[in-house]
């Protein structure tokens, strides 16, 4: 069934697991992600970035909503990295049940002001809001909302931010990069920092990036306070690596229904690993 981000994440928070937010940007990938969530009985957040919405067209959102209503697992449709108040209103109009407002690159007070404005409006109509504090790294042209260096989230700032904005969940910077992890840095999550933030704010926390961080650190993060983990790069790499293999150099290979199923299967294998790693498998029964 279709539900809000808050409804999904509050249960994850209570039961100490993380819900995967898979970014999709075409119908085949979306179908595959819903299928694997249903097969593993896991709650799902469908993440769609504004660039991805531009790519698929707003009409497809209606189809995503329709499929979510008919699903056996709870699904939230989440606007990933909303940049402005106006853009978030657009997401609400399209039928998203959860939005992110990312003003993390702006000064602290400005981040609070814009996030509060979004939260005040979104909550009137029951849409959930994710804010971001700190700066998650990003190191290639596709890595949205990131910077060359990580600025770790300050726990006391997080308390102020959550209290003053009323956000339902908070993306924190604890050692992840958007996209591929830079070769010159050792991927390492600051789990002590995560514990400290969680002890002070309690609300569901969100991890962006994380491709390249070791599985045992991710598993531990999901156990001690992270309740939503965004997955984009890993499933897209699996999908398109398989597509290159299927296409080969044979020009006669051209029908999408002959090309895409193997790519979807390859993507589903990676998605299933994430669902398992985050502790989300079987958790749809809690809703
Ligand atoms: Zn992100």
TrEMBL record:
Cofactor: Zn(2+)
Name of the protein in its database record: Ketose-bisphosphate aldolase
NCBIfam families attached to this UniProt entry: cbbA
Gene3D superfamilies per the UniProt record, alphabetical: Aldolase class I
Organism per entry: Dactylosporangium salmoneum
